[in-house]
Amino acid sequence: MTEPALAPAPSADTLLEALRARLGAAHVLTAPSDLDPYLVESRKLYRGSALAAVRPGSTEEVAFVVEACAAAGVAVVAQGGNTGLVGGGVPHGGVVLSLARMNRIVSLDPVNASIVVEAGAILADVQDAADAAGLLFPLSYASRGSARIGGALACNSGGIAVLAYGNARDLVLGLEVVLADGRVWNGLKALRKNNAGYDLKHLFVGSEGTLGIITMAVLKLFPKPASRTVGFVGLPSVRVALDLFARLRKRADRDLTAFEFIPPVGLDMVLRHMPGTVRPLAGAHGAYALIELASARPDADTRAELEAALSDAIEDGLVEDATLGASEAQNLGLWALREHLSDAQGYEGGSIKHDVSVPLSRLADFVEQASAACEAAMPGLRVCAFGHVGDGNMHFNLSQPVGMDKAAFLGAWADFNRIVHDIVTAMDGSIAAEHGVGLIKRDELQHYGDPVALDLMRAIKAGLDPQDRLNPGKVVALSSDPQPALP
């Protein structure tokens, strides 16, 4: 008996006609000038291509797009604010699915301390909605004015408050997700205890859009701090910075909400290039730290608490100099010195970036060993290592030697990956701390990843997306001919 012939997949033109009919022509972009913003990631290391960029306005429309693309054999790459740093949102053919129109704050429950938002909600807007209710959504980083919640969750973003509140994964109660075949999983439960089977939401948080497309989320809120103080200190070295952190963690406990390390070369770059920044301390120091204490207790006095702790540290020789913000404007000014670090590096030429983590007890060893190894490999190289000391995450960035050709410097990216990532791996760390794997670290994950873990990842990908249509070639590649990883 002859098998019935399979119906041919719809053509690209047929797919676009169907998408326009459902979403409206204004939300199916095909002109090169309209597509261009969706093809380049924020660091401009990659430029992709796409059949179209579509802008659905609801979960039902997202599901329609995914199902139609699946039937046509066309890949779908979801984008939020397109602020990622590892090339994870760059399309290589197929359709870009922008969640920017799905930006509603759906509801807020002050008693349950939770908020329901669409995936396209801008991070700063979620923070503002919580603040208006007298609560706090603590996830925060420099791109909060353009980053969107769906992308933050898909990449398991970290940021400046992980020490106190955890990564994005720790702030999620429930999700709604469109699967690769267009079905919708509704896991929007605002529960802090739910052991009814596998905790499916954690499959999708951190999956970078390769397993499903997050369309809505229930997020945890916290009491709004009643007292907040920011300090900036000068220290002899990164090793002493760790000693100070350990002392403050013991003394301030949960009031210690941030402890950020800043190297002298990074501070100088910020002061040189970023308008409005002011040198916080009179002298020069071997290392700097930005410290924040915050408490929701009505009787809390974090300024007095931090002043006393730093005074003792100065007497004991750990801290060489310190200043505290006397107003919210001064607090923001001190934070700007940290948040502008990545942007300031761009004015100094090429920058090879590594987002890594090691056990906190090895962090000083890592910075010292990796710095020495990289400087030996390229004389004149400027190591700009900064980051979240409190959670062991260091942005180990390398700025090109003064006067060197930028392209020649960036051509050494793979060599420096091997130097830095070998040291990280030897210290039982991670080559992808908070930015994710995306495209730029996909091959590094293959090189350093545990074979069993990689097999499990591929099995999960194949189980949820057997046709490899969702953000193909990212994180783990099922294709035998994946896109190149390095820029």
From TrEMBL:
<dbReference type="InterPro" id="IPR016169">
    <property type="entry name" value="FAD-bd_PCMH_sub2"/>
</dbReference>
<dbReference type="InterPro" id="IPR051264">
    <property type="entry name" value="FAD-oxidored/transferase_4"/>
</dbReference>
<dbReference type="InterPro" id="IPR016171">
    <property type="entry name" value="Vanillyl_alc_oxidase_C-sub2"/>
</dbReference>
<dbReference type="InterPro" id="IPR036318">
    <property type="entry name" value="FAD-bd_PCMH-like_sf"/>
</dbReference>
<protein>
    <submittedName>
        <fullName>FAD-linked oxidoreductase</fullName>
    </submittedName>
</protein>
<dbReference type="InterPro" id="IPR006094">
    <property type="entry name" value="Oxid_FAD_bind_N"/>
</dbReference>
<dbReference type="InterPro" id="IPR016164">
    <property type="entry name" value="FAD-linked_Oxase-like_C"/>
</dbReference>
<dbReference type="Pfam" id="PF01565">
    <property type="entry name" value="FAD_binding_4"/>
</dbReference>
<keyword id="KW-0285">Flavoprotein</keyword>
<dbReference type="InterPro" id="IPR016166">
    <property type="entry name" value="FAD-bd_PCMH"/>
</dbReference>
<comment type="similarity">
    <text>Belongs to the FAD-binding oxidoreductase/transferase type 4 family.</text>
</comment>
<dbReference type="InterPro" id="IPR004113">
    <property type="entry name" value="FAD-bd_oxidored_4_C"/>
</dbReference>
<feature type="domain" description="FAD-binding PCMH-type">
    <location>
        <begin position="46"/>
        <end position="224"/>
    </location>
</feature>
<dbReference type="Pfam" id="PF02913">
    <property type="entry name" value="FAD-oxidase_C"/>
</dbReference>
<dbReference type="InterPro" id="IPR016167">
    <property type="entry name" value="FAD-bd_PCMH_sub1"/>
</dbReference>
<keyword id="KW-0274">FAD</keyword>
